[in-house]
Amino acid sequence: MGLKEWTLFLGKTVKQLVHRYPNIKILEIMAGTSGATKVIMNEISCSFASYTYTNISLGFFETAQQVFNAFSSKIIFQLLDYEKDIDEQGYKQYSYNMVVALLVLHATINLRRTLRNGRRLLKPKLFLVMQEITNNDA
């Protein structure tokens, strides 16, 4: 499977969870050029409470706001450096039902701290939906 197929699989996974929990609050870590976000939005349409589109830089937000204009009442564009403390960045602990991360966690300096921050964003016993590259030869 290539990246396109894995991204489609991620979108279908999110769709299943949104179908089960229609008032879900979603946060996407490092949405970047919106590749995964586009697939997810095609799958879930407006069947969610809110979608927080994050990035470490404001540079991606203007284009993303245009692309996702149809979801403007439900999508939030917000800075997030997932390696830094979430409280200091204005995020409330345990406030999301789902955190989505596509090929971003491997780029962190301290994976343990990054995963801990992601966990602190999630309500207890809810969903981290992620995809990462692995080395099968290791």
TrEMBL record:
InterPro entries: Methyltransf_12, Polyketide_Synthase, SAM-dependent_MTases_sf. Keywords: Transferase. One of its GO terms (molecular function) is transferase activity. It comes from the Eukaryota. Pfam families: Methyltransf_12 (PF08242). SUPFAM superfamilies: S-adenosyl-L-methionine-dependent methyltransferases. Residues 27-124 form the Methyltransferase type domain. The keyword rRNA-binding does not apply. This is Polyketide synthase, putative. It comes from Metarhizium acridum (strain CQMa 102). The lineage of its organism: Eukaryota, Fungi, Dikarya, Ascomycota, Pezizomycotina.
